[in-house]
Specification:
Elements lengths: L3 H27 L1 H4 L2 H9 L3 H14 L5 H11 L5 H11 L4
Length: 99
């Protein structure tokens, strides 16, 4: 099992690669799921407890503040986890993010 820091590093690395490969327009206009394998990040996030997931989310948000792209990626990941209601509610409450 990965730590929150490791999961956030995976996400931020994927974000950096996507921005370099596809540019900011694709990310901003089409969304993270069009340029990043969000499902693999979802799987990593789901292995964390809600407390650790909240920490990973905040590291993603804080790790890339440029135009809120970190927050956009974090919301995209969490948006794919809507079937995990209690877990997701705890993460959203801890981070203050809204989907």
């Amino acid at each position: 099992m990965k730590t929150p820091k490791q999961v956030s590093k995976l996400a931020l690395s994927a974000l950096k690669v996507a921005l370099k490969k596809y540019g900011t327009y694709q990310f901003d206009d089409k969304g993270p799921s069009e340029v990043i394998d969000v499902n693999s990040l979802v799987a990593e996030m789901r292995e964390l407890s809600s407390k650790d997931a909240a920490e990973a989310v905040m590291l993603i948000v804080e790790g890339h503040k440029d135009c809120d792209r970190g927050a956009t990626l974090a919301r995209s990941i969490l948006g794919e986890l809507q079937g995990y209601d209690k877990w997701l509610d705890e993460v959203l409450e801890a981070t203050g993010l809204e989907l």
